């Protein structure tokens, strides 16, 4: 079976879970063609991401003129479908208040439909319910192959009407949510008759990449990993560290990542006098992330909005407990036996959890890590999850 994966920007440093999913499908014998609107090559540091970028067909590299010729050629041969798809694009654009943008999506969709036909693609699968799913839905309306998409959150949950999630779900062969919470949010936007096509397939990790955990360090070291954006809550974490650190002289936090709030976070660290307590590393490759997890006693995730973060899976697989906010799909994985859950947006509650963590003996932290490791391997083995996804592609589940 030939599958095409469609992502807006691919690969990205934060999208290693998509690469793992594709490769797991390929291990099962499926042929997967990578399609993306654009590349993020200049920002990539991981050699595996760079290799994946070279394997990906980036649509916008064609240039506007060649893309227009390809799109018009496909649509002119199918005038009725082109008219139907144009009306759908316009309706979606009205909801999003971006009519012109959706006409551009229509042109991209026509080219994607043509490429899928040229390549003999049986099924088009988009990651994220945003513009990549819009292009997939429009490509289908233009006479392209059947499609599906994976919804991660939180972006899709923030603007379901503007993203026309209901239209997309109704037209898709199936829709994947990465958690039960995510599925519940999608069920809100379609009639109950469509609920059976919304399936839960977890993002996954490769257990073989996580050998026996490194010995638990004896000092209270935390690591936080993610994009420095509003939804991740890192400024709140700095405030929690400022409250907890004076009572915990050995406490240290490493922040791995980058993004639009880097300057804000750096300034907050300096203002709170925490430059010797908090280290900023920038983005690291997968080996670098695993090294930071090995150096830490626990991962901390202060997010305001999430789907189900892969970094939580990676931390548990590395045998490290997790301190996280009790939001979205996080409580489905992080339980009291392998971490602490706190209310989102509460710096004091986060500081209290940090103090409880620091008072926990290393042996108990290691025991929590072992429990988390067993839990994540049972729920998030990428080969098991890819097998479920493959059955959905094949129509056998």
Q: Overview of this structure, please?
A:
It contains 16 helices and 13 strands. With about 400 residues, it is an alpha/beta fold. The chain has 2 domains: about 220 residues, Rossmann fold, CATH 3.40.50; about 170 residues, Rossmann fold. α2 links the parallel β2 and β3. α1 packs across α16, α3 crosses α5 and α13 crosses α15. It is elongated. The relative contact order is 0.11.
Label this structure with key terms:
single chain, 397 residues, alpha/beta, Rossmann fold, 2 domains, seven-stranded parallel sheet, six-stranded parallel sheet, Glyco_trans_4-like_N
How many extended strands?
13
CATH architecture of the largest domain: 3-Layer(aba) Sandwich
User: Mean pLDDT, rounded to whole units?
Assistant: 96
Q: How would you classify the helix and strand content by structural class?
A: alpha/beta
CATH 4th-level superfamily of the largest domain: Glycogen Phosphorylase B
Determine the CATH topology of the largest domain: Rossmann fold
Query: How is the main sheet built?
Result: 7 strands, parallel
Strand numbers in spatial order across the main sheet: 3-2-1-4-5-6-7
CATH class group of the largest domain: Alpha Beta
């Amino acid at each position: 079976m030939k599958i095409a994966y469609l992502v807006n920007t691919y690969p990205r440093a934060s999208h290693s879970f998509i690469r793992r999913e594709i490769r797991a499908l390929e291990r099962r014998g499926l042929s997967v063609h990578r399609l993306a609107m654009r590349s993020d090559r200049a920002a990539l540091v991981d050699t595996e991401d760079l290799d994946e970028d070279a394997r990906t067909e980036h649509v916008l590299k064609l240039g506007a003129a060649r893309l227009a010729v390809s799109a018009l050629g496909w649509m002119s041969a199918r005038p009725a479908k082109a008219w139907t798809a144009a009306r759908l694009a316009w309706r979606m654009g009205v909801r999003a208040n971006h009519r012109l943008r959706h006409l551009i999506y229509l042109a991209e969709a026509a080219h994607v439909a043509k490429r899928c036909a040229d390549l003999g693609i049986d099924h088009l699968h988009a990651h994220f319910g945003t513009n990549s799913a819009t292009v997939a839905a429009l490509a289908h309306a233009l006479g392209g192959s059947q499609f599906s998409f994976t919804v991660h959150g939180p972006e899709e949950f923030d603007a379901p009407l503007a993203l026309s999630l209901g239209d997309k779900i109704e037209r898709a062969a199936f829709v994947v949510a990465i958690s039960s919470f995510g599925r519940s949010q999608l069920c809100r936007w379609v009639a109950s008759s469509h609920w059976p096509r919304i399936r839960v397939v977890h993002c996954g990790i490769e257990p073989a990449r996580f050998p026996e955990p490194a010995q638990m360090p004896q000092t209270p070291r935390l690591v936080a990993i993610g994009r420095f954006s509003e939804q991740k809550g890192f400024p709140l974490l700095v405030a929690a560290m400022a409250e907890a650190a004076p009572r915990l002289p050995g406490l240290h936090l490493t922040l791995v990542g980058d993004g639009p709030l880097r300057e804000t976070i750096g300034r907050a660290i300096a203002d709170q006098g925490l430059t010797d307590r908090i280290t900023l590393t920038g983005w690291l490759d997968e080996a670098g992330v695993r090294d930071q997890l090995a150096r830490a006693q626990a991962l901390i995730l202060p997010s305001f909005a999430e789907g189900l973060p892969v970094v939580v899976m990676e931390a548990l697989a590395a045998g490290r407990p997790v301190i996280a906010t009790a939001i979205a799909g996080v409580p489905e994985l992080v339980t009291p036996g392998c971490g602490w859950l706190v209310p989102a947006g509460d710096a004091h509650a986060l500081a209290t959890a940090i103090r409880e963590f620091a008072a926990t003996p290393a042996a108990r932290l290691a025991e929590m890590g072992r429990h988390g490791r067993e839990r994540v391997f049972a729920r998030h083995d990428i080969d098991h999850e890819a097998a479920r996804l493959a059955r959905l592609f094949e129509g056998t589940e």
